[in-house]
């Protein structure tokens, strides 16, 4: 964790426990795990956006920090959506009915957990998000080591190339080269998740 407080350590423990359960179903660092966990992770940002928008609407954003958090969450949401589309759509990671059922139902629960937590204790919600991203970095590092060479050497998924072409995408802004293979894509995603760790750590103290 980038944040070194006790609250951050607690958030990390909660996420590790939840991930331990998900590992029973999606233990292998492949497109099934990535597609399922990305849906769940992306929903947390959508929930944060909704809650921030609500807080802004009822007039609590006196200094503009809630709006800044909302804008950052939107930017992260688009990036997570790209990850999801790469693994779920392009690589068919959700082809099993059971995976779709489970991932989507967990995502709905996570939406409400993150929306309500953001309203009650935004710091905690951001720290839980930071912990999710710490674990995401580990998943994609494992993917680079554990997926077969031919899988990593396959051409970059179309969504990845499309995302890179967007002038304000996280990959362009960072100066990444256009991904040629899935190895390049996963390496870019590792950098994305590491960026999310830092951004969520900052958001935790935003308001
Ligand atoms: Fe992601
Ligand atoms: Fe992420």
UniProtKB/TrEMBL annotation:
<keyword id="KW-0560">Oxidoreductase</keyword>
<keyword id="KW-0479">Metal-binding</keyword>
<keyword id="KW-0472">Membrane</keyword>
<dbReference type="GO" id="GO:0016020">
    <property type="term" value="C:membrane"/>
</dbReference>
<keyword id="KW-0679">Respiratory chain</keyword>
<dbReference type="GO" id="GO:0046872">
    <property type="term" value="F:metal ion binding"/>
</dbReference>
<dbReference type="InterPro" id="IPR038659">
    <property type="entry name" value="AOX_sf"/>
</dbReference>
<keyword id="KW-0812">Transmembrane</keyword>
<dbReference type="Pfam" id="PF01786">
    <property type="entry name" value="AOX"/>
</dbReference>
<keyword id="KW-1133">Transmembrane helix</keyword>
<dbReference type="GO" id="GO:0010230">
    <property type="term" value="P:alternative respiration"/>
</dbReference>
<keyword id="KW-0408">Iron</keyword>
<keyword id="KW-0249">Electron transport</keyword>
<dbReference type="GO" id="GO:0009916">
    <property type="term" value="F:alternative oxidase activity"/>
</dbReference>
<dbReference type="InterPro" id="IPR002680">
    <property type="entry name" value="AOX"/>
</dbReference>
<protein>
    <submittedName>
        <fullName>Possible oxidase</fullName>
    </submittedName>
</protein>
<keyword id="KW-0813">Transport</keyword>
């Amino acid at each position: 964790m980038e944040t070194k407080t006790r609250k951050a350590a607690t958030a990390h423990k909660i996420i590790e426990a939840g991930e331990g359960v998900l590992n029973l179903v999606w233990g292998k660092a492949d497109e099934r795990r990535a597609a399922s966990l990305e849906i769940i992770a992306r929903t947390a940002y959508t929930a944060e956006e909704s809650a921030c928008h609500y807080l802004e609407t009822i007039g609590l954003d006196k200094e503009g920090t809630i709006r800044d958090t909302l804008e950052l969450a939107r930017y992260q949401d688009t990036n997570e959506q790209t990850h999801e589309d790469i693994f779920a759509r392009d690589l068919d990671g959700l082809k099993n009915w059971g995976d779709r059922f489970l991932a989507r139902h967990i995502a709905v629960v996570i939406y409400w957990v993150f929306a309500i937590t953001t309203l009650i204790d935004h710091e905690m919600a951001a720290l839980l998000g930071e912990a999710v991203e710490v674990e995401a970095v580990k998943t994609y590092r494992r993917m680079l080591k554990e997926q077969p060479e031919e899988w990593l050497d396959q051409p970059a998924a179309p969504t990845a190339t499309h995302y890179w072409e967007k002038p304000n995408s996280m990959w362009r802004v960072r100066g990444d080269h256009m991904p040629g293979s899935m190895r390049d894509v996963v390496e870019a995603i590792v950098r994305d998740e590491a960026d999310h760790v830092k951004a969520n750590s900052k958001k935790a103290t935003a308001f």
